[in-house]
Amino acid sequence: MSKTITLIGAPVQIGAGRGGCLMGPDALRTAGLARALSDLGHSVTDRGNLDASDMDVPAHPNPAIHDLERSAGWISVLQDTQVDGLPIFLGGDHLMAAGTVPAMAARAGDRPLFVLWLDAHSDIHTLDSTESGNLHGTPVSYFTATSDFTPHFPAPRATVDPANVCMIGLRSVDPFEKQAVRQAGIDVTDMRAIDEGGIAAPLRAFLDRVRAAGGDLHVSFDVDFLDPSIAPAVGTTVPGGATFREAHLVMEMLHDADLVTSLDLAELNPFLDDRGRTATLLVDLVSSLFGKSVLDRPTRSRP
Fold this sequence. Notes:
By secondary structure, the chain is of the alpha/beta class. The chain has one domain: Arginase, Chain A (3-Layer(aba) Sandwich), CATH 3.40.800.10. Helix content is 33%, strand content 17%. It contains ten helices and eight strands. It has helices at 24-30, 33-39, 68-79, 97-108, 139-143, 175-184, 191-197, 200-213, 244-257, 277-289; strands at 4-10, 43-49, 86-91, 113-118, 165-170, 187-190, 216-222, 260-266. It has an eight-stranded parallel β-sheet with strand order 2-1-3-8-7-4-5-6, with helices on both faces. Strand 5 (165-170), helix 6 and strand 6 form a beta-alpha-beta unit. Helix 3 (68-79) runs parallel beside helix 4 (97-108), helix 8 (200-213) packs parallel to helix 9 and helix 9 runs parallel beside helix 10 (277-289). The longest helix is centred in the last third of the chain and has 14 residues, at 200-213. It starts with a strand and ends in a 14-residue tail after the last helix.
């Protein structure tokens, strides 16, 4: 089924510990994302890159935190962005999700928003708990309102019930985050569970929940969900990630379910890539989500 897709660049890099994500959106464009989607029969509009300025916010007592003012600015810009069709947010580090997810939750209105979090990390730290000060590790606690970020971040336009968040691919979670995920009641399938039982069953169960609730589905895809042997262009590599086939299966199942209403592509750092191989792989994976296949299979229509 043809989609109306809007590409929106979110060149955020102050949430991470090293530079390079600033170049992520343009690397995805150079790798041919718009053309790949158009060739699949979709209508694609590229709105270019957003920009953000520092917000006037009070300092936080945690001395590790850096770039708080610009981080707040990015969250404000992203969550106030008005979008048409199905938006793909081109990152940019994963701080972007503190803006994109509230924006999509607000757009969903009376429908519940579900979030599929494909990531090596849970990113559920708070401003008090982060030891690195890298704020790309905080968006989940922000958009689920399990921690209050005001007055340092703008209040979220809308939040997501933690029970509507499904994390798949976790393999680097510190003690604070383990407790936070457990207390929040987030659905988690870590790489140990995937090794033992595969990736299809937990994803299928989550998609069945989304469909039963009549919800919107936002997919937030971090490059470090993938094993670094196939996707080296990320500043937070963790061995033992999703394989090429596991990642494609996730995208193929998402296409077949026809439930995705928005997408993040986060943490692509072209400075760390090998001749563009990670950006090219991301384009191929997104193509699978939007219908590229070896053989045609029936696609379920949204209710």
